[in-house]
Structure formats: C-alpha cells, structure tokens
Design goal:
Blueprint (H helix, E strand, L loop, with lengths): L5 E5 L8 H12 L3 E4 L6 H11 L3 E6 L5 H12 L6 E5 L3 H7 L1
Parallel strand pairs: 1-2, 1-3, 3-4
Helix pairs in contact: 2-3
Length: about 100
C-alpha cells in the first residue's frame, strides 16, 4: 500500500488571511496528499503538538501579516520536542528574513 504524504497547513499568530492557504490545501488534496489544516491564529506550541499527534511529513505555513518571526519559535519548539519535520513557508516574508529562515 502506498503511503500518503501527510501535510500540516497552518497560519501562525494574528494572521487571519486564510484564502491562499485554503487554496493550497485544496490543491495538495487534489494532488493526492493527505492535508490537515489547523485554521488561523495558531501558536508554535499548538502547531508542534498537532504535527506530533498527526505524524505529519511536512509543515506548510502561510504568513501574510509579518508574523513570520513565529516560524523561528516553531523551529525551536520542534527541536525542543526532538522532532525533525521540514517547514515550507510562503507569503509576505522580507528577503533578509527568508534567507535567515533557509
């Protein structure tokens, strides 16, 4: 049996602009991936817990209101919990910050 890739899609912080992340979630599902969408206003701690509970392969983050510094916190939470899950982030992330996040 073929394993489905499990993706956790989320919005961190005060960012409630969720149309884009919903479109990406639908596209990933249409492509055959298993997608869990947490909805907006999540914390790094809550995303970490969902990622662990759902045993996801990757975390996707949409950041449209300059809440992208929370991605650093999420990376710290994952490390603290000894979890290695790749993160893909998109949205409005200044070039310098994008380089630092890489």
């Amino acid at each position: 049996m073929k394993k489905h890739i499990r993706v956790l899609m989320t919005k961190l912080g005060q960012d409630g602009h969720d149309r884009g992340v919903k479109v990406i979630t639908s596209m990933l599902r249409d492509a055959g991936l298993e997608v869990i969408y947490t909805g907006p206003w999540q914390t790094p701690e809550s995303v970490t817990q969902v990622a662990i509970q759902e045993d996801v392969d990757i975390i996707g983050i949409s950041s449209l209101t300059f809440d992208h510094p929370l991605i650093y916190n999420l990376m710290g939470q994952l490390k603290k919990n000894k979890v290695e899950i790749p993160i893909i982030a998109g949205g409005i992330i200044p070039t310098k910050d994008a380089r630092d996040l890489e």
